[in-house]
Amino acid sequence: MLLFTPGPTPVPQNVRNAMAAETMHHRTPEFEAIFEKTRKHLFKLFNTDEVVMIASSGTGAMEAAVINLCHNTLLNVNSGKFGERFGKIAKAHGLGSVEIKNEWDTPVSVEAVVEAVKANSDIDAIAVQISESAGGLRHPVEEIAKAVKAINPDIMIIADGITAVGVEPIDVTNIDALIAGSQKALMLPPGLAIIGLSNAAIAKIGEGKGYYLNLASEVKKQRQNTTAYTAATTLVIGLLEILETIEANGGLDTLYVKTATRAKAVRSALEALGLHSYPKSPAKSMTTIDDENASEIRKILKEEYGVNVAGGQDHLKGKIFRINQMGLIQEYEMAWVVNAVELALAKLGRRPYDGTANRVFNEVTFEMSR
Ligand SMILES: *Cc1c(COP(=O)(O)O)cnc(C)c1O
């Protein structure tokens, strides 16, 4: 089965092998050396002043960022399930909560955020997805961060990059917390989250908030190449392996170019079949198609062609399907996926099979790779 969901993504064989060794004790020079090397790679990936790894799924890092960086009121951008989650986290911790809500195909506008910030001086942090995975859309996070900092540089910008870090270069100039999760673009099993922090964020964190998710404790320990609590040793070993693999495959710049090419090629191929791309500003992490036969297409892909793609959640259940583009993906596998979608449409009697998806996928890929 080809796993083409936008998280979890397949774990490369060499990474699985690296994680198959005997459990290493976390308080040892051997593990600390691995931790140090991993941190060096992470600084290149995040470009932030500091990075911390947390043993949790991505949501744990979202919660850590909110409780440590928001002390009054959080403004969250809700264009999907993950944006909505930031508001729920704020409320769960008794923080003030202001939300900008849009349909799941609609990115937030910079103006709407600016207006909300000007209208409420209690807002001391903003949380937004770079790539909102619910509908596969890209928010203009860098522009939002710049505009907000121009109004009040003390407002913390929390950017959920769980389906963006490792997908595309992110300008972190005005971002205070950048979040990544192991099971999306980093091609690892779930269970490890990473937060990049600005110096301004570290200043605001001070003594930190919370206990397990207290970022002050983690920053202090991780600067010494260890963790406050037991590290997710196996996942850190896997993380080092995948970051070294990315480097061996041409580095981050190559990965970003290949991902952008793949994103364009997949969307072009599916649009050439008459399918409709759902988000108004598609993220590079996935292609999201809204279609009345979305469920049937997913079922045929899985049962006939061995391809697992994601559906939609909540009101988009049965209305969309989402195809992953993150990670080190072989182009022949991606070509198989778009071809399988074309075959599924033929099975449904929607259009006769003529190889359009593969032709367009290859044309765009070769054109952009020249
Ligand atoms: C997957 C995802 C999350 C949640 O991560 P978990 O690991 O499931 O807790 C948060 N934000 C985005 C954008 C995601 O894609």
Describe the structure.
The protein is an alpha/beta fold. The chain has two domains: 13-248, 3-Layer(aba) Sandwich (Aspartate Aminotransferase, domain 2); 251-369, Aspartate Aminotransferase, domain 1, CATH 3.90.1150.10. The protein is built from 13 helices and 14 strands. It has helices spanning 13-18, 29-46, 58-69, 81-92, 110-119, 141-151, 199-205, 215-222, 233-248, 251-272, 294-305, 331-347, 356-369; strands at 2-3, 50-54, 73-78, 96-101, 123-129, 131-132, 137-138, 156-160, 177-181, 193-197, 276-277, 286-290, 307-308, 320-324. Strands 2-10-9-8-5-3-4 form a seven-stranded mixed sheet, with helices on both faces. Strands 11-12-14 form a three-stranded antiparallel sheet. A two-stranded parallel ribbon has the order 1-13. Strand 6 (131-132) and strand 7 (137-138) form a beta hairpin. Helix 5 runs parallel beside helix 6, helix 10 packs parallel to helix 12 (331-347) and helix 10 runs antiparallel to helix 13. The longest helix has 22 residues, at 251-272. It is globular, with a radius of gyration of 21 Å. The chain starts with a strand and ends with a helix. The mean pLDDT is 98. Bound molecules: pyridoxal-5'-phosphate. Pyridoxal-5'-phosphate is lined by residues 7, 57-59, 82, 129, 133, 160, 162-163, 181, 184, 190.
